[in-house]
Amino acid sequence: MRVVRQVIRYPMHGRTFDHAVENSRVLFRAAKAAGVRRVVHISITNPSAASPYEYFRGKALVEQVLNESGLSHAILRPAVIFGDRGILINNIAWALRHMPVFGLFGDGAYGLQPIFVGDLAELAIGLSRRDENATIDAIGPETFTYRSLVEAIAGAMKVRRPIVPMPPRTALALVWALSKLLGDQIVTREEMWAMMDGLLCTSSPAAGTTRLTDWLSIHGDQLGHKYMSETAHRR
Question: Does domain 2-234 have CATH number 3.40.50.720?
């Protein structure tokens, strides 16, 4: 069994979504030639080859390549992953700790369904032991709006900040300026619009059991003291 996650969040240092898809194609061919019994691929909720967003198109294309490879496989589609190295949750917490105001993209009414990294790992291990091909929305047991997610993180941290709706382009401009200061790409334009379009939420039953609110009640004090850089991680 191999667990595979190849598609990148955004192009960087000459690496594009097309490169990531082709790298996955080469990897699946090599896996088949080597006699790998089973591949578990980590994708994203709501991928589509017709998506206006490159990330979601890339994920759909990798799924298509895997489906056509002849390999026994399972595809897991998480939305947001939380845990000790969960960048999104930590950096929301960081902004709440260090910024005087937390700006939402729009009204923050769009949904997210976070899954605990341990639950995702258990799903991958369990699916690796099966033979039939499967595609599963790997979502947790709680559905949040973006606003209620930020409020839950702030409450667990015992931090009070104004949480203010902003026009998306205004919020994105502020994020862009902060990204320059931090030397990172906090949120891309496509990530913002995809989130606002509800692509991090599905109608599927929960595949994980760990509640983010329970996890936050234990780890809230530890979150957001340091910013977690995607750029540094990829280097």
Answer: yes
